[in-house]
Amino acid sequence: MQKIDQLVYTAVFGKTAERDAARIEIFKAAYAKGIKSASIHNLYAARGKGVIPPTFTVPAINIRCLTYDVARAAFRVAKKLDAGAFILEIARSEMGYTLQRPMEYAAVVLAAALREEWEGPVFLQGDHYQFSASKYPKNPGVETNAIRELISESLTARFLNIDIDASTLVDMTKTTLQEQQKLNATLSADMCAFIRKHQPNGVTVSVGGEIGEVGTHVTSLEEFTAYQDLYREELTKLNASPGPMKISINTGTSHGGKVDSAGKLQTMAVRFDLIESTGKAAREQYGMAGVVQHGASTLPESEFNKFPSAGACEIHLATGFQNLVLDHPAFPEELTERIVTYCTNELMGEKKESDTTEQFIYKTRKKALCSLKRPMWDMPQATRDTIMQAVEAKLELLFTKLNVTGTRALVREYAILDTVPPTGNEAGAPIDLGSGMAANEGE
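Above: the chain's sequence. Below: its structure in token form.
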């Protein structure tokens, strides 16, 4: 076990040659043990056909810091609850401000699975592969190619679940819903076709889409229908199938939650009726698993059992786990001070006139994680273990409320497993992730 700990440390912080070799070694060791990257597509397709009832909501957890520790906690909880329907993911923007590229993230997660003696599928997901609303109009080709390159890098790292987000390009100044959603649907379909062309042999990558940018206006059922019809029409032109089995809608939440002037989280009203009605339409009209909920990790715990009841197929959880780590009493005060200093020195350009200092630090501190990656990893084991107790308790509560307990056998039946791990020079050179991404992208 200690060897795995040393190997994953090298896979993250080693010099280029030894780092890349360590990543490949982790992949090979994991695959040899039956711990393989997998696509959730078939499970969602079965749900869309009514073979699997919409009675559970798959948690998709964005790990921004202490990735090895948090992933280990997730696998421990999954083993305890016999849960298999959960995803570990990272967004395009998070890759930038946490310094975690796809190959590294995948290797760390698989190492965590090895360390916890997990058996079976592991769902790795690229979250919010988002088109920049500021960059795309200036140079559409460059931004489109950046997304394609990120998809290629992610497929090499065996991310077999990818969410395309062109919702930033929805044009609400247009007259009709079809005109408003046209660019979003066209680009999403184009990226889906690209994925289908380059996905590993024998694997159908799970693809997701997004209608309305989370944190803006609440999605309507009519917008969903307009987007889906345009998307499918475009896929037919591209001779690419299948399309997405899930769609993210805005239900009134906001990535990271909303904080008052003292930096305390405010209550957000979730439109569970919209989740239910849109999910029903997704299943009955398009054979999809349902809708995806973003921006929910900071909701009150009492809200989470409502998502399975409403038929949500997936829920993305990021900031709540980040907060558990950064706000934990055991988190070193010195590192907290470094976060404040980083935000103050490097990110003041993002401070709105209306923001209090507390609001500004809360909203921007995730971007300070790049400066704390190694110091946090090097915290004493006892400190990390204490913090992980809180993380593990939260994971267990969420897995239980989202009703994924006992889903391991179901996942084994439907997961599409990768068969050939990376074998050589596939770590890939870093690409431009887009420093000007929307501030709310990723949760």
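Confidence is low (pLDDT under 50) at residues 427-431, 434-443.
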